[in-house]
Design goal:
Chain lengths: 295, 295, 295
């Protein structure tokens, strides 16, 4: 790669990492998040029975990462809610997804090509959030590496990390599984992303932040769009993880035909097979069918 | 209404909204709250087995609104506990309600005429709390309308919003229902009250705060006393809500003979009927019988 | 006791209460805590399946008291994690306990004589934590007696108070019991210790802090080491408690042959017998056998 190419790449990355997320990308984030909420079994009934509970769940899906990060850093959990425009926008999206006449809005955004674009845009926002979370924690704790990783992780994973309590709000309780025990791809990627951004922030990774944002976004968008398009939930980390976990933690090696690639795939998983398929990973087709039936 | 009448009303409202709540009204609040704790199935056994757990539950019933509001605003959840006199008073009430010889204190305060007065006084305190919560949030977030509503709501509803976790402390776990999914009258009224006080605080409602406090208190006292006297748990909002929810959220219209008027009454409620009757709404007669049996 | 003896005792107490806990005593604390985690049924499988969940649980066992106290006082729950050396040390202990080849490390530290020394050292740290918690709360709330007691209690009990949620992280849910409903010896002792240190801090107990630390440490070490050596879980408070609870709270008197000495031992406990044996109190032999089988 010649000098000019590097310069250009740097400039593009610079431009890309400064690009405003509000409102276009944020709206995409809200749409995809609330779409996943609608896929959850029982959420349509809750939206009919108790709009307040449904609205709170929608807000958790959209702003869970801010709420959790604020809790982790001992700040006001409601802090993000002073951005009235963001909340109103998310509320509008929630209303359209759940109550639009003829279910028109839902049908439009759940249409695969549209959805792929939105899913890609969501990952752009996710990467930014991870970087912002690490930066925020670095500001508060200059040498708190663990705090940086945890904050970045929480900012990237959002509602997934509190899914047990979000489900409880809808009257569902599944204690046998949670997002940390059975990490989905976005949660896992957030963890690795938070590690990378922490290394960058503490100058262990000799790369500019804007370039890292650019590269990580590229990776996330590609992976997530591919996975959504192929209705797949196999993680690109599975092979490496399987080996590392085998060497470091004595986990059994994942057999090739195994279908559920957990973090350190289990040989004799105690949990039943179904809860292993978590929120973001659930086969899209099945979910859509369920959601349609629920209408 | 002539000018003089309005002036007088304003003065009365002014006086009323400045009236000190401690100790008389606060004691009434503690008594009614801990009475409701005693009505909870199993709470008498817990008070025998583990006085510490029972005391913590009693404190949650009395000060849950302060604890929750402090959590929501990122402040010290124990902050209110530096008011030693309030805590000692509530502890005394707890001791008398649960351990008084011959159950004398309980019998006195559960005597209907006495209870009606106490219930009325509790509602006076509740309204004040909502107003204070909205004001507090307004102070911290000048344009955070959502934060104001949520803080006021939480201050008005108190322990009800964390009933799942309060029950867990007593070894009871009922995940299929919660106060947001099946709102009781006081919770719902707190939400509407918080909305009104937020509108007033942001000058959208052209009415003085003291007058609003006065009117809302009047409404709450009347409703709650009537409901307690008639052992009823039908909400005065039911009809309006039913129509609004039908139009806005496509909920089924509540049939006239329906007995459980949820927020947006369900046509085919997934939850079984019994948990729908929440804390404050449970038929008083049944509860008293249960509590007596538990003695 | 002559003047010289008292002077000497005061000096020894002074020296003892100033002694640094890091790293020797802290390591002992981490080892014993993570040992107890390994005794928990299912924790070995979790460590194989999801090292991240296992690591988080280990951190909760080691630093739960700091996290809880920070939450209670409205500070950053992750605050303690900026002590990178402490976290790295605890992580090393966690790795050695769970993944050491041939299970060598576990076998060494679970060897009774070694374990008794470590258990004794853990109690030294616990007492210090209680004193520090009360002092911290006293600094923030000068007259907040209740806040002091609660903070000291939480600092002494640590993860036990959030055991329900720690278990949930491992996919286990046992709502019918919790540490407040069925207090184990260390939790109970932490409560009494927090009371004593609060009395000392507010000058109601005419004794120097260093002497109180010294005496309380002596009591804790003796009790806990004896209980661990004898595989016993009977509390030294049982007799006094039984009488006090009988007089104050009307609890049934514990019969002499009763095996489970709860706080205010129940006559007709609603909870089944097994969950009554809590974390620290479980018969060590049984737990070791279970842990071995799980290997």
């Amino acid at each position: 790669m010649d000098v000019l190419g590097v310069l250009n790449l740097g400039e593009i990355a610079q431009y890309f990492s400064k690009m405003a997320m509000f409102p276009v990308f944020d709206v995409a984030y809200y749409i995809v998040s609330i779409l996943y909420l609608k896929y959850e079994p029982g959420s349509v009934e809750v939206s009919r029975r108790s709009p307040v509970a449904s609205w709170i769940c929608a807000m958790l899906y959209c702003f869970g990462s801010y709420i959790l990060a604020d809790i982790m850093l001992g700040e006001c959990p409601l802090d993000y809610f002073h951005n009235n425009s963001h909340i109103l926008l998310a509320t509008a999206v929630w209303y359209l997804v759940f109550y639009c006449p003829l279910n028109l809005f839902y049908k439009c955004v759940a249409f695969l090509p549209v959805k792929l674009v939105l899913v890609g845009m969501k990952e752009v926002v996710r990467t930014r959030k991870i970087a912002a979370g690490v930066h925020h924690a670095h500001h508060a704790y200059h040498h708190g590496w663990f705090i940086m990783v945890i904050t970045g992780y929480v900012k990237g994973s959002g509602v997934a990390l509190m899914s047990n309590f979000e489900q409880l709000l809808r009257g569902v309780w599944r204690p046998e599984s949670n997002e940390i025990l059975n990490m989905s791809f976005p949660t896992k990627a957030s963890l690795y992303g938070a590690l990378l951004f922490t290394l960058q922030e503490t100058h262990w990774l000799p790369i500019s932040k804007s370039l890292l944002i650019c590269l990580f976004t590229l990776f996330m968008v590609t992976s997530k769009v591919t996975m959504t398009a192929r209705h797949s939930h196999s993680s690109p980390f599975a092979l490496v993880e399987s080996w590392v976990c085998h060497v470091l933690f004595g986990s059994a090696l994942a057999s090739e035909d195994s279908h559920d690639h957990h973090h350190c795939a289990p040989a004799a998983s105690a949990a039943p097979a179904s809860p292993a398929k978590t929120r973001d990973e659930l086969n899209e087709g099945t979910r859509k069918r369920k959601a349609k039936k629920a209408e």
